[in-house]
Design goal:
The complex is a heterodimer. Chain A is mainly α. Chain A contains ten helices and no strands. In chain A, helix 5 crosses helix 8 and helix 7 packs antiparallel against helix 10. Chain A has a single domain, classed as MetI-like (MetI-like fold, Orthogonal Bundle). Chain B is of the alpha/beta class. Chain B has one domain: 3-Layer(aba) Sandwich (Rossmann fold), CATH 3.40.50.300. Chain B has nine helices and ten strands. In chain B, the strands form two sheets. Chain B has a six-stranded mixed β-sheet, with helices on both faces. The radius of gyration of chain B is 18 Å and the shape is globular. The two termini of chain B are 20 Å apart. In chain B, 47% of the residues are buried. Classes of the chains: A mainly alpha, B alpha/beta. Chains A and B meet through helix 5 of A and helix 3 of B.
């Protein structure tokens, strides 16, 4: 068995020599998670904004439910999506199980509540601040939604990045609905789990290093955006 | 009360306006006519109902009872689009200075060139031409309030409500705001402004409304109210005494 230093050295070689298998896995991970985060943002941001602005019976219960869904166990989400997509499930006819699309669906289910909850919080505080001014300018409650979303844009990009970070680091749900099939549904997290169990630590370490680098880059972007927002007085709460 | 017309054919007329919360009367104005040519100043201690009256007049708060008329007819939603309000703490959009002005001009349906020209005029009027691209939220207090007034004036209002717009400003910044208010008034914009500054009321007001405990205790021409107040509450307020 190779030492940790040797494994890490081999991992760096895989990364910098452009190992085709490794980078294919990284590319698929990015494709799945970016696509999932974009769909989750398209769903979650309007939902969050609507919950922030609209007033209707049961709104408070919906907010509690949405906040609770943020902590939903990924394996349970994987199981539910699996049941939906399995041959005997309601969406079985689509034949999506063990495809990248199944993993995207699972990640969308996981990430949408996060983006919606963060959006709701950001937009609600901004809406309270803007309420009288927008009414004074003749802006209706409905028409205020795009104004609020635009003015909270930096905070919403942060919410998107938080959702993407959650999606790309996810393993439990995607391994259930994706099946970890080589060259088809094998993403960074599921490959790390598999290769570690097989003793192929170099590939696992290489993917782990890239995953950490992505996490650091995402957090750096969040931090930069936050600083910029504070500097420009655009940050909300 | 003096100098009040029983009905105001050309101006704002309030009758039997009332707001109560939890059994406490917050605003009770049986009759008030704002018809003077120049700025109207509303004076009174904290909690007198000045800001509440302003919000009612602008339609931000619905009274429990009463009627607000403009030019002899009941205030309609269309009339409210002819009004604008500037708040004590200016609420600026998280955009640049010019984008704050562009927001209201775009809502008015102006084209790109017309908006650009109007923004340039407004920035000169407010002395903010050097800060057009600056983030509005990074302006100083005086600049922010000037931008809030410019944005309100960009709507082309017939009536402009101002709720203590200079309460947190130094004398130089206050003077700039007062100049803008007087210019707007000279152009025919009806100004209704809440202030605690008696000197400011003396400088700007055509007529003065004095409030206390949700009631109008005196309303008349500025010079009369300031130099020969009739109600004991006004006399105490102007003398700097405690009014509860």
């Amino acid at each position: 068995m190779r030492s940790f230093a040797e494994e890490f050295s081999f991992a760096l070689t895989l990364i910098f020599q452009g190992d085709a298998e490794l980078w294919a896995i990284v590319l698929l991970s990015l494709q799945v998670s970016i696509f999932a985060a974009l769909i989750a943002a398209a769903l979650g941001m309007p939902i969050g904004a609507a919950l922030a602005v609209a007033r209707f019976p049961g709104r408070r219960a919906l907010i509690v439910l949405m906040n609770a869904l943020m902590g939903f166990p990924p394996v349970v989400v994987g199981l539910l999506v699996y049941l939906m997509l399995s041959r005997s499930g309601p969406l079985g006819v689509l034949d999506l199980l063990y495809t990248p699309m199944a993993m995207i669906i699972a990640q969308v289910v996981l990430v949408t509540p996060i983006i919606a909850a963060l959006t709701r919080q950001v937009v609600e505080t901004l809406a309270e601040e803007y309420a009288e001014q927008l009414r004074s300018l003749g802006v209706s409650r409905l028409a205020s939604v795009p104004v609020l979303l635009w003015d909270a844009r930096l905070a919403l990009i942060t919410a998107f990045l938080a959702g993407f970070g959650r999606a790309i680091a996810e393993v439990g749900a995607v391994i259930i609905v994706g099946g970890n099939i080589n060259h088809v549904t094998r993403v960074m997290t599921t490959t790390i789990a598999l290769e570690t169990s097989k003793g192929n630590l170099a590939l696992a370490l290489a993917l782990g290093t890239i995953l950490i680098a992505i996490a650091v880059a995402v957090n750096a972007m969040v931090s930069t955006l936050t600083l910029r927002a504070e500097k420009e007085g655009l940050r909300h709460a | 009360m003096r100098d009040l017309a029983p009905f105001c054919p050309d101006g704002l007329h309030v009758s039997n306006l009332r707001i109560a919360r939890d059994g406490k009367v917050l605003l009770d104005v049986p009759d008030l006519a704002l018809e003077g040519p120049g700025p109207t100043m509303i004076l009174g201690p904290n909690g007198a109902g000045k800001s509440l009256l302003l919000r009612c007049l602008h339609g931000l708060i619905q009274p429990d009872a009463g009627c607000i008329q403009i030019n002899g007819r009941k205030l309609s939603p269309e009339d409210r689009t002819q009004q604008a309000m500037v708040f004590q703490r200016p609420v600026l959009l998280r955009r640049s200075v010019s984008a704050n002005l562009d927001f209201v001009l775009k809502r008015m349906g102006l084209g790109r060139v017309a908006r650009r020209d109007r923004i340039a005029e407004l920035l000169v009027e407010g002395g903010l031409q050097g800060q057009a691209r600056q983030a509005a939220r990074s302006l100083s207090g005086g600049e922010a309030q000037r931008l809030a007034i410019l944005r309100a004036l960009a709507c082309g209002p017939g009536t402009l409500f101002l709720d203590e717009p200079t309460s947190a400003l130094d004398p130089a910044a206050t003077q700039k705001i007062e100049t803008m208010v007087l210019r707007a008034s000279a152009r025919g914009v009806r100004i209704v402004m809440v202030t605690h500054d008696i000197g400011q009321a003396r400088r700007l007001a055509s007529d003065i409304v004095v409030m206390q405990g949700g009631h109008v205790v005196e309303h008349g021409q500025a010079q009369h109210v300031l130099d020969a107040p009739q109600s004991p509450e006004t006399r105490r307020y102007l003398a700097g005494g405690l009014v509860t």
